[in-house]
């Protein structure tokens, strides 16, 4: 099920997530985006629907949470 981005704040949050996961892994943001959209549906199924909860957390928590979900689902970058 594809989630729709509702506003500019959600779009900025998604970019923030992708860029910071990429920075932590020291890989290109494009690679992270592909992992979250092409290799899995984590962006549509987890990140966007949980925006209201996750965007209130600090950067370290958000990045670690996304990496944890990726690991649980066997998504490799």
Short descriptors:
5 helices; 77 residues; mainly alpha; 66% helix
Written account of the structure:
This protein has one domain (8-72). It is 66% helix and 0% strand. The protein has 5 helices and no strands. The mean pLDDT is 93.
The number of helical elements comes to 5
Task: Give the structural class.
Answer: mainly alpha
- The stretches of 5 or more residues where confidence is low (pLDDT under 50) are none
Largest sheet: none
Shape: globular
Count all strands and give the number: 0
Q: State which percent range the strand residues make up.
A: under 5%
Mean pLDDT: 93
What is the gyration radius calculated from CA atoms?
11 Å
What is the succession of H and E elements?
HHHHH
What is the topology?
Layout: H1 8-25, H2 29-37, H3 42-47, H4 51-54, H5 59-72
Helix pairs in contact: 1-2, 1-5
């Amino acid at each position: 099920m594809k989630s729709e981005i509702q506003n500019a704040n959600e779009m900025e949050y998604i970019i923030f997530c992708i860029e910071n996961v990429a920075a932590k892994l020291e890989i290109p943001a494009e690679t992270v985006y592909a992992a979250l959209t092409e290799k899995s549906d984590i962006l549509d199924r987890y990140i966007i629907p949980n925006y209201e909860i996750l965007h209130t957390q600090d950067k370290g928590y958000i990045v670690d949470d996304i990496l944890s979900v990726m690991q649980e689902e066997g998504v490799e970058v």
